[in-house]
Design goal:
The complex is a heterodimer of chains A (265) and B (1000). Chain A has 265 residues and is of the alpha/beta class. Chain A has helices spanning 64-69, 114-124, 138-148, 170-184, 193-197, 203-213, 219-229, 233-244, 250-263, and strands at 5-12, 23-30, 35-39, 42-48, 57-60, 75-79, 82-86, 93-96, 101-103. Chain A is globular and about 55 Å long. Chain B is 38% helix and 20% strand. In chain B, the strands form eleven sheets. Chain B has a six-stranded mixed beta sheet, sandwiched between helices. A five-stranded parallel beta sheet of chain B has the order 6-5-4-22-23, with helices on both faces. Classes of the chains: A alpha/beta (265), B alpha/beta (1000).
């Protein structure tokens, strides 16, 4: 079996710039098309360059070799702009970080929030509530009402933390979408979602929340926002559709939370 | 435009890359391309073809250089895709191949042609020649095997070094190559640390701690305990260090050893200071006071692991690594209370002895009867020492010996603390922790019954990925009441604390010292191939060693090993000596070449005395090696009587016997006169003989003609009927065939007849009907037109038509003409004669010329005509084994499945195939002239090698007729007989003596 080298093509600005450092980490989780690596407390998501990046994403020329060979716990080393993976059952594989394009996924400052109203209008047409990954019972509906009313997150957010299945539970994604919308509008929450999630849900949800707290979002959500800012309804639909395609219900959960956030103001 | 791609650490063998280049060149838009590994020699090839780009120039030997000359980027992209597809297909094809166990290394290499490592776990007394063979076949060696002499170790390591290979061991208990655990090894996560170590459990302890600290080890190369001795000079240690320096996937190097011999130490230290990568070295027994630049010196195995992990993580090395024990004890044991260390791992025992001796000033380590410390009642015993493993398994496999010691010390008044290791991993006992836990509970009860509190302190050497699981083992021991510490050093510290002593590690600064350095040599190309691929292993010995190889992505093929030459060490050594001589293989090829290139033609039939001068006197030729009349069996004696009567030397049988007994008749073997004779082989001057000429150099051979069946001279019959037939053959058959052959220009090309007949189901010893018919077809038209008496002509035609085995004697003469041409090369180990005289089996080999090697002949096994049994059989007899000598007869049984039942080789086609395959194992080549359809058109086996016969213990099998033991009765059955092994053994011993080898 030969050792192959994979090239990192794109990387978000939310990913810690580890290119010049000597660090070691481990493979955190492996999915069909992407995988996560943990360096200390930081997570990094590596997947195909053909797909939009997550907030902590790195786009690779050919991640298949890695997704097929890596397992949780495999060691990872960064040296001289090479991220070297040591799969338990196969040979080392390197990811070349030397020519990676940095992708800015910082949230823009929205001077005019009116575009969000039209976005919210558009989102209503997607009938999101019926498609999210959570069953909203009476208690949940009460919390949704509080959310829409713009009450402090600390008074209703707990019900959503870690609620739902998967590596990014639907409740977490709704909260992230909510904070995303509020940050777009320059509205400060009483507590960040990251603080709310810390130690109470999955590492991947927590990593997304931490990135958001620093002002970073994933590429599909950023595209939705850009389409809204440009006031281009023809661009908005495909951007929303792209978010909807993320995960089983993850994208829908994000958008539902986003709509809640817009409504809350 | 030229495009270069360098794939680092992407080894493929050259043949694959040549095939890949062909595939890439076929892509549209590609003008030319070259794909090779980045060796200097390959760069020269690139340079001469104008393809050596700057990037290719910078490639390392383990890098794949791809240079494509293409019209545009699109073509390059397609070419690279084609290359990936090609390489991917290769691996798929390899993976899907089913394998059975191999019988030897050569067969294993047929199953796994790109094998790069031979793993030995066989008895040491037999191992060195096999390891040498593996090295000469281009495989690195991992020798779990111990008890190899130091002289052999030096020879093997020098050979490995010169060949660019690694010789790991002997007595290499553990190892990791490219993340694949070998032998007794833990499932350690791969990572950017490479280790080379002399010891077994030293490597295991360090790699397991690294794993549990979150680091990883890609390679752990064992050298064996004697590598750093003055005699061996650290050959493997140096080669391994250079290899790790050149492996791009390794960032940090660890070295684990006992202190080396002074002169070796200087060389090793110079090498360590010449490496560009940081090194952590522990010479167990030494307590270093500082680090030296990039060379970090550790005291304990734990410290070694922790510095390695810090360096691997890119962190600063700490000045001190304290041994933090998990348990708190109060150090109030009485003065008389002692600590006993009962270890299964030698290096762990050594570390415990070192730490205890340092802390309590106990006089240092000893090495006596398994004891590494024995002072003031404090003892540390390595229960894996030879002292305790004679005739029983190692204590890592069988806890029995340790359980006995635990019980003994539980009852010992002074023993208050027992230190234990519990080594996990592949190869070790699956329930070691449970076994120890049970013993701990029982021992504590025994101690409590005497009012003594017995404390067990243990450490577990293992990982969470080990089959036994680290956490489970720790819990099991802790539940039994043992105080479990995370490393051996910490366990020792806790034991010392119970006695009021402690271990305080020295703080070490990094100091700059002026050490000599050396110019780093280039790593062996095959070593780098080994370290940059998953090992492909020929596993010779313990079958369980395949498990970890398969689990961690390697490949292996199992060899069902047994000692060669039946374990005869004299012969094993001779075989090894002979294999080392390339000129022998060359001579064998030349001998075989002569056999293969022979062109036997049947040219005439003449009275024997006209071509064999000695037959113009009262001399008879006989079959087999030389024999006196007195020692001949009855059928051969009967043949002699018949021949005398035929020649008219006596008026009757009584007179003939008197002449024979009086010594009035001389005897010589047919083989001494370019002749062969069936059964008794008795040949007299007036008997007509077939004349076969080998047209390559006019070598001529003779054989009497087949008399048919029934009462015949060759089986010892000498009645008037027999004599009358011989007279008819002399007066009619011989002259008629002579005239016929004279009229065929050049004679009859026997190669053509043999090739045609083997395809028709003959094997030319037991079955010749196709050959006889084909001969009949050639000769009949010529006889038809001869101007001879019609009645005589009719008699000849009738005789030929009735004699199914007529071609046997022609085949024998052809075989003799081939063999005598080949025998002119008096070198090598190819068998040139197989024959029997009823008393002895005789063998000659090329290298010993005319010298005979004989042993008592066996009696055939076979089927008997009604009314006869084995009790009636004469011991095997005849020169007809010349057919087997040239690769037919029983050697080609599969060609004639119709007679397999008759010759007793089993019964079915499968038995015939199995016998032929077995015979093929003792031959060097195959004869493309005689292709066997039933054998998938493979050529008949050619060139029986006496070395292979002795090595495998497989002797040539002969198809044979069975004569009645009383003269005159004739043939009573047919069967097979195996040549005695002793003939071949004697031949090899004599040849080795002739070549000047010490055969004592």
């Amino acid at each position: 079996m030969s050792v192959r080298r994979v090239t990192a093509r794109r990387m978000t600005s939310a990913v810690p710039d580890v290119r010049g450092a000597a660090r070691t980490g481990v493979v955190h989780s492996v999915f069909a098309n992407s995988f996560n690596v943990r360096f200390g407390a930081e997570l990094m998501n590596l997947g195909p360059v053909s797909r939009p990046l997550s907030a902590i994403g790195v786009g690779l020329s050919d991640p298949c070799v890695l997704t097929s060979e890596l397992h949780e716990g495999d060691r990872v080393v960064i040296r001289e702009r090479l991220m070297r993976f040591y799969p338990m059952h196969s040979l080392p594989v390197s990811v070349d970080l030397s020519a990676v394009e940095m992708v800015d996924v910082r949230l823009p400052d929205l001077a005019d929030h009116s575009c969000l109203a039209s976005l919210e209008q558009e989102l209503r047409e997607w009938n999101l509530e019926s498609r999210i990954g959570l069953t909203i019972d009476a208690t949940g509906r009460e919390h949704l009402t509080r959310a829409r009313a713009g009450l402090p997150l600390s008074t209703w957010g707990d019900w959503f933390v870690g609620r739902g299945l998967g590596l990014t539970p639907a409740g977490d994604d709704i909260l992230l979408g909510y904070e995303f919308a509020r940050r777009c509008m320059g509205s400060v929450l009483d507590v960040s979602v990251a603080e709310l999630l810390e130690g109470r849900t999955t590492d991947i949800s927590t990593a997304g929340a931490r990135a958001l707290r620093k002002g970073y979002v994933n590429e599909p959500m950023a595209r939705v926002l850009n389409a809204a800012m440009n006031g281009d309804p023809r661009a908005m639909k495909p951007a929303i559709a792209q978010v909807m395609s993320v995960g089983h219900t993850s994208g829908c959960d994000h958008l539902f939370g986003m709509a809640l956030g817009i409504q809350s103001t | 435009m030229l495009t270069t791609q360098i794939r680092s650490n992407s080894y493929q063998d050259s043949i694959n890359l040549m095939l890949a280049t062909n595939a890439v060149n076929a892509v549209e838009g590609v003008t030319r391309s070259s794909i090779m590994m980045g060796s200097d020699a390959n760069k020269d090839i690139f340079r001469s073809s104008g393809l050596l780009t700057e990037e290719a120039e910078a490639a390392k030997p383990a890098d794949m250089m791809i240079v494509i000359d293409a019209e545009d980027d699109g073509a390059v992209e397609q070419a690279l895709a084609e290359l990936d597809r090609f390489l991917s297909d290769l691996s798929t094809k390899r993976a899907s191949k089913e394998r059975a166990n191999a019988r030897n290394l050569a067969e294993a290499l047929e199953y796994l042609p790109d094998a790069n490592l031979a793993l030995f776990s066989i008895p040491g007394e037999y191992a060195a020649p096999d390891m040498e063979t593996a090295l000469r076949a281009g495989l690195s060696v991992f020798s779990f095997t111990d008890n190899v002499s130091k002289a052999d170790e030096l020879m093997l390591k020098e050979l490995a070094h010169e060949s660019g290979l690694l010789m790991m061991g002997p007595d290499c208990g553990t190892g990791i190559i490219s993340g694949v655990p070998l032998a007794f090894t833990n499932a350690v996560r791969p990572g950017n640390i490479g280790i080379v170590g002399a010891s077994g459990t030293g490597i295991q302890e360090v790699t397991c701690i690294i794993d549990r600290l979150g680091g990883g080890v890609l390679h752990a190369i064992g050298t064996g305990g004697r590598d750093l001795s003055a005699e061996i000079g650290g050959i493997t240690m140096k080669d391994a260090l250079v290899a790790l320096e050149n492996d791009d996937a390794v960032d940090v190097i660890g070295l684990i050893s006992k202190p080396p011999a002074k002169e070796v130490r200087d060389e090793i230290v110079a090498l360590l200071h010449s490496l560009t990568k940081p090194v952590v070295a522990v010479f167990l027994g030494e307590n270093p006071e500082h680090h030296e630049q990039n060379v970090f010196l550790a005291h304990t195995l734990e410290e070694t692991a922790r510095i390695l992990v810090d360096l691997a993580n890119g962190d600063e090395v700490q000045s001190r690594y304290d041994l933090k024990v998990e348990h708190t004890v109060d150090g109030t044991l009485p003065e008389s209370a002692t600590v006993k260390g009962l270890y299964s791992g030698g290096t762990l025992a050594g570390e415990a002895a070192m730490l205890m001796s340092e802390a309590m000033d106990l006089g240092g380590l000893i090495k006596k009867e398994g004891y590494q410390l024995d002072s003031n009642g404090y003892q540390v015993i390595d229960l894996g020492d030879d002292m305790y493993t004679q005739g029983r398994p190692h204590p890592m496999i069988d806890p029995g010996i340790r359980l006995e010691f635990i019980k003994r010390y539980a009852a010992d008044e002074d023993t208050h603390v027992i230190l234990l290791d519990c080594v996990l991993g592949y190869g070790t006992h699956p329930e070691m922790a449970a076994e120890l836990a049970k013993a701990i509970r029982e021992a504590r009860e025994i101690a409590a019954s005497t009012g003594k509190e017995l404390t067990f302190i243990a450490s577990v050497c293992g990982t969470h990925s080990d089959p036994q699981n680290y956490d489970a083992a720790v819990s099991t021991l802790a539940d039994a009441g043992a105080l479990v510490e995370s490393t051996n050093a910490r366990a020792v510290r806790l034991a010392l604390q119970l006695k009021g002593y402690d271990i305080v590690e020295l703080a070490k600064d990094v100091v700059t010292v002026d050490r000599p350095t050396v110019e780093l040599p280039e790593p062996g190309e095959k070593v780098m191939e080994l370290l940059t691929s998953k090992p492909k292993v020929v596993n010779i010995g313990l079958e369980s060693f395949n498990d970890s190889i398969a689990t961690f992505g390697g490949e292996s093929v199992q060899v069902d090993w047994k000692p060669i030459a039946g374990g005869n060490k004299q012969l094993i050594r001779i075989l090894s000596d002979l294999k080392r001589m390339p000129e022998i293989a060359d001579a064998n090829e030349r001998v075989i070449g002569r056999l293969r290139d022979s062109q036997p033609f049947l040219v005439d039939v003449v009275p024997a005395k006209t071509v064999i001068d000695v037959l113009n006197s009262h001399t008879l030729l006989h079959a087999g090696p030389p024999i006196n009349y007195e020692n001949m069996t009855s059928p051969m004696q009967g043949s002699c009587v018949g021949a005398i009567l035929f020649e008219g030397w006596a008026s009757g049988a009584t007179e003939a016997r008197r002449m024979l007994e009086a010594g009035e008749i001389s005897f010589e073997p047919c083989h001494h006169h370019h002749a062969v004779g069936p059964m008794g082989g008795i040949t007299s001057g007036n008997m007509p003989v077939l004349v076969v000429k080998n047209m390559v150099d006019d070598t001529v051979a003779y054989c009497t003609m087949n008399e048919g069946i029934g009462k015949v001279l060759r089986f010892g019959a000498f009645s008037q009927e027999v004599v009358d037939r011989l007279i008819w053959m002399r007066d009619v058959l011989g002259p008629t065939l002579s005239k016929a052959l004279q009229s065929i220009e050049g004679g009859i090309n026997l190669n053509v007849l043999i090739a045609r007949s083997i395809a028709m189901g003959d094997e030319f010893h037991q079955r010749n009907i196709a050959g006889s018919l084909n001969f009949f077809k050639e000769i009949m038209p010529v006889i038809e037109v001869l101007e001879i008496d019609a009645a005589e002509k009719q008699a000849v035609v009738r005789f030929l038509a009735d004699t199914d085995q007529f071609f046997l004697n022609i085949m024998m003469a052809a075989g003799k003409a081939m063999v005598d041409y080949a025998r002119q090369i008096e070198q090598g180990t190819v068998v040139t004669t197989l024959t029997r005289n009823g008393e002895n089996f005789g063998v000659r080999i090329a290298g010993m010329g005319d010298e005979w090697f004989t042993a008592p002949v066996n009696t055939p096994n076979g089927l008997y005509f009604t009314g006869y049994s084995e009790e009636d059989a004469n011991p095997d007899i005849g020169d007809s084994a010349i057919t087997e000598t040239v690769g037919v007869g029983a050697m080609a049984t599969v060609a004639a499945p119709a007679v397999t039942r008759f010759v007793g080789s089993g019964g079915g086609y499968d038995d015939a195939l199995a016998l032929t395959e077995e015979m093929d194992r003792i031959c060097i080549s195959n004869n493309p002239n005689w292709s066997i359809p039933n054998w998938n058109f493979k050529g008949a086996s050619l060139g029986i090698d006496a070395c292979k016969v002795v090595e495998t213990g497989i002797t040539p099998v002969i198809n044979t007729g069975i004569a009645h033991r009383e003269a005159g009765v004739g043939q009573i059955g047919a069967g097979t007989v195996a040549a005695p092994l002793a003939c071949f053994e004697q031949a090899l011993i004599a040849y080795a003596q002739k070549l000047g080898f010490d055969v004592s």
